[in-house]
Every structure is written in structure tokens, then in C-alpha cells.
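Notes to self after the Tuesday call (sharing in case useful).
The group wants a holo model before anyone commits to mutagenesis around the pocket. I volunteered. Ligand is adenosine-5'-diphosphate. Logging inputs and output together so the record is complete.
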Amino acid sequence: MKKGLFITFEGIEGSGKSTQIIQLADYLKMKGRGVVVTREPGGTLIGSAIRKILLDPKFSKMDYHAEVLLYAADRAQHVAEVVEPALKNGDIVISDRYIDSSVAYQHYGRSLPLDFILDVNKYAIQGLKPDLTFLLAVPVALGLKRATQVAADRIEQESVEFHERVEAGFQELAASEPARWRTIDGTRSIDEVHKEIIKAVGMLIKM
Ligand code: ADP
Ligand code: TYD
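Result:
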């Protein structure tokens, strides 16, 4: 039985997800809420090992189906070990990425069939959908410039066209389910984006 609130952040690399998640978590904790901050891939010990395989540039020959299955394996462990227990406990769970990233990157980005991704992930998420999903929208050039100031990982090394397809995919997902998604202009200042996010969260819970 779920009692907490499940919030996810989506967007391309460098859209500002991690920055905003830290600020939102601090704000909610200040308001006395129980908050669990987590991420995919790598929200568990097993997930950290899977993440290393997924992002290592030396695995440039990874089969796209293997990629989907590895992200889903990470997700299955993450939902079972972190997200479900925290929600049962009544916490607010904030995750940096969830199943929408698999649809955006592996369906829109890699052009794999949507059904394949949804079928595989059915076993990983066990019916658990986010209550609220933020899309931090930024132009690809800006996101990649922000993200690749340190060495680019296996996914970041993909072409600009790949990242354009992913960003367009996120926009399509957000438009198709407006009750769950809030699209935020991520090009504005960190503080302006934060204020819009807490306004949206405030509409779901009393703060
Ligand atoms: P993500 O988690 O989406 O990859 P990050 O939060 O790690 O993105 O941000 C990537 C980089 O961009 C960091 O150096 C961060 O400080 C910077 N950054 C994040 N949000 C903004 C913003 N609104 N304006 C300018 N720089 C930002
Ligand atoms: P990460 O460093 O966490 O990126 P960011 O800081 O931008 O969130 O790397 C995760 C990478 O994995 C990122 O390029 C997106 C990609 N990804 C997928 O391709 N499919 C997925 O299902 C997930 C969760 C992430």
C-alpha cells in the first residue's frame, strides 16, 4: 500500500536535474518531510555495478536490446529495494530518471520498438508510476555543453542528432500525459527553476 509521493525528474544530460533535486529535497526536508533522493541507473549497490557497465565508453559495442535489459535490471532492483519501501514508509521519493528515460533514449533515441521497452519494464516497475514528473527542457547544445565539462560517458558520446531525438521524445511524452508531467524551461536561472518546481509540488501536497 503506497502512502508517500513519487516524483521523477527527466531531461537530457545537463538539463539541471541533479541540481534541482538537491534543492527540492532540502526545501522539503526544511518543511519537515521525509525525503529519499535516488537515481537511475545506480540507486542501489547492484545498480551501481550495472551503471558502470552502462556508461563505460569501452563498451561501445553494446547491443541495444542488452542496453534496454540492463537499464530494466537496474530499475527492478531500484523499485524493489529503494522506491517501494520508502513510499510504503510515507516518504517523498525523488528520482533522477525512471522508465520515461528508457522510452526517450531507447525508443526515441535508438528507434527500438516501444512495445519491447514497455513489456520489459512491466516486470521492473511492477505497476509503479510517478505521481509527478518534471521535464527540464533545454536545447541540446546547452545541455551537452553543461554536461560534458568532465569526460563524456558512453551515452553522452552519442551524436547531437541522437540527443535531439531524445529531447523531442521527452516533449512528446510530456504532451501525451499532461496530468503527470510539468515541463519547465531549464534555460533559466537555478533559482527561477527551483521556484517553479516547488510551486508545482505545493499543488500536490500541503506545505
Ligand atoms: P543533470 O543532472 O540534468 O545532468 P546537473 O544538475 O548535473 O544536470 O547540471 C549540469 C551542470 O549545469 C552543473 O555544472 C550545474 O551546476 C549546471 N547547471 C544546472 N542548472 C543550471 C542553470 N539553471 N543554469 C546554469 N547552469 C546550471
Ligand atoms: P547520468 O550520468 O546519470 O546522466 P544525467 O546526470 O544526465 O542523469 O547517466 C545516465 C545516462 O543513462 C544518461 O545518458 C541517460 C541514460 N539512460 C538511458 O539511456 N535509459 C534509461 O532508462 C536511463 C534511466 C538512463
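Two things stood out.
The pocket of thymidine-5'-diphosphate (ligand 2) is lined by residues 13, 17-18, 40-41, 55, 71, 96-97, 101-102, 105-106, 155-156 (CB under 6 Å).
The chain has one domain: 5-202.
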